[in-house]
Amino acid sequence: MQVLTRFFWFCSGANFSILQKVPTESNKYLGIGATVFFTGVFAALAGFYALYTVFQSWGIALVFALIWGAMIFNLDRFIVSSMRKKEQGWSEWKLALPRLVLALILAVVISKPLELKLFEREINRKLDEQKIAFIKQSKDSLAKGFPEIQVLETEKEALKGEVSQARAYRDKLQQEYDAERFGEKTPSTSGVVGLGTNAKKKEQQLDAAQEDLKALSIRNEAGIKELDVQIEAFRAKRQLEFEKQVPGIDGFDGFAARMDGLAKLTEESDAMATAELFLVLLFVAIETAPIFVKLISARGPYDELLELHEDQVKLYKNEKWQRASGESEARLSYFKATHFYASDLAAATTNAENAQKFGLGSARAVEKSKKEGSNTPSLSEGQA
């Protein structure tokens, strides 16, 4: 139980060292952590079903489902652990609004795959209806794509019609011949019993019609067989094209197709729409429960100790800053003082050297001018 308790504390994002000092807060963070954990479990299940419908592989779906569940768990844990209980209630709600919006989005994302699983039978029935409609649409499209079959069928029916007309003419002559033999009075018979002249004429016409029917039947039967071969060839091509489309129709059961089927079911049935709404609200309640627990619960000793710990960190930071700032100012002052002293000393030394050099140069100039003055008269006299 201790291990399980610490695990749920970890799920809630609570500080162990602080929470152990306030045992009265243990159950609250135990419940928050359990809610966060089971939300991650539901997310993993939903992700597994959604990914299995896409990849049709248990291994791939399981790996990505675990990653998805861990990500949702970590995100929920961050949302809960980043909230702080303050004295001002409205400020907490303002800070919690973005987290609530994110929790709502996560609840909808998690609930959708589970809705597809719960309503799987109804969705499969709707998908079967759509597949039948796709098959009919495909066949109609292929029928328009092979007009040769209809042309050949028309020719075949025309040949059959010719044989039917010849047979009907033969049957008519047979009836007239029988009426003539038995003495039945009709517009085309004489009404005399026996095989007279008219009866023999009718017999000859009947024999000729029978021969024509036989010849026409043989000829048209051959034509019909040839047309049947051509029709079967085109039908085989059409069937081949249809079989190419069958895998796509049979594979119409992906995630998007199931979402579309669920949307149509909710449009057609108010009961389905109500069930979907309740399921979404359930996951919204589960996802936002830790946040609301933090918001509506009173400020407890854990929050006081956590704020004290954070304030101590801030104070320690300010102390370090003040110390570093003072040390920096002292170093700057020492640098400025020593730098200016060294500059003044260097300037004084330079001026002294310049003055000394300037004084020595002036004395030499005066002595040189004196020598030049004494030599000038002698030069004048010599020139004279």
How would you sum up this structure in a few lines?
The protein is an all-alpha fold and 384 residues long. The chain has helices at 2-12, 16-19, 26-55, 58-81, 89-118, 120-145, 147-181, 197-250, 255-268, 270-296, 301-383. Among the domains are: 2-118 and 269-300, no CATH class; 138-252.
Tell me the β content: under 5%
Rg measurement, Å:
55 Å
Total strands: the figure is 0
- Main sheet: strands, sense, barrel: none
Separation, N- and C-terminal Cα atoms: 135 Å
What is the succession of H and E elements? HHHHHHHHHHH
> Could you say which overall geometry the principal axes of the C-alpha atoms support?
elongated
Helix content: over 70%
What average pLDDT do the residues reach?
77
Low-confidence stretches: 373-384
Count of alpha/pi helices:
11
Task: Please state the structural category.
Answer: mainly alpha
